[in-house]
Amino acid sequence: MVVLTKMRNILTVAALTIILLSSCAKEKSDVEKIHSILEETAIIEKSLEKLQRSLVDLERKDSKAFKKIIALEKGGKERIVLSNEAIGISDKRKELVEKEREYIEKAQRKFNSAKANMDKLTDPDLKKAAVNLSKSMNDRYDSHQKLYEYYLNGLQHDKKLYGLLKKKNISVSRLEKEVKEVNDAYKTVMEMNDAFNEATKKYNSEKKTFFRKAGWKIK
Question: CA 62 to CA 150: how far, in whole Å?
Answer without folding.
Answer: 18
